[in-house]
Amino acid sequence: MFDFLKKKQLQSAAATSITPNANQQHSDIRRELIRVVLKDTLRLHGIPLHWLACEVIIIARAPGDEELHIQLVLMKWHAQLLLHALALQQQLLLGLDRFDPSVDHSSYIVSWRLSPDCGCPVTGMPAPGFWLEHATPQVQEETPLSLLDRRHTPRAPNTSPLEEVAAPAQAPGPEMFSPTQMTPLR
């Protein structure tokens, strides 16, 4: 009498057994795409391929909601590579956008890890005063003018009205105001 309920249960069980396998294939394809794009980015910028490795970690937050972590592992120490790490990371994400424009790669989390045997020459921390001595002074950037702004000079920085105007000696009375002039429309 209730055979239709049994058929629904069998169909839903079959659908759930297919889904993990399809998700695994999709994850494997994304991992391989990231590795290929990383190799292409390294070749494009002249970085030896054995200097960096890549690990892709996919974390399922909820059904259909995944978070992707790309961990770049520094295998060979080179100070200039660390200096340009952010630019390389941006080039990797741009390469992913170029190869797969249908996916939003800006939500990917990219992290860096140094391999223990990468050959880093620094093994200890400097004295606490080192950081203050080598701090770069912050330069205050000028704010760009808007294209819609017709002024040729930028506005003065915002200051409090209390700082600019001193309180008047006496309260203004009606004698300090001039009457409104009416001009006829032509």
Order of H and E elements: HEEHHEHH
Main-sheet strand order equals: 1-2-3
Q: Report the end-to-end length measured between terminal Cα atoms.
A: 90 Å
Share of β-strand residues: 5-15%
Helical coverage, percent range:
25-40%
Low-confidence stretches: 14-18
Number of beta-strand segments? 3
Number of helices: 5
Mean pLDDT: 79
Structural class by helix and strand composition:
alpha+beta
Oligomer: single chain
**Rg computed from alpha carbons, rounded to a whole number of angstroms:** 32 Å
| Basic shape | extended
Query: Main β-sheet: number of strands, strand sense, barrel status?
Result: 3 strands, mixed
List its salient traits:
186 residues; alpha+beta; three-stranded mixed β-sheet; 5 helices
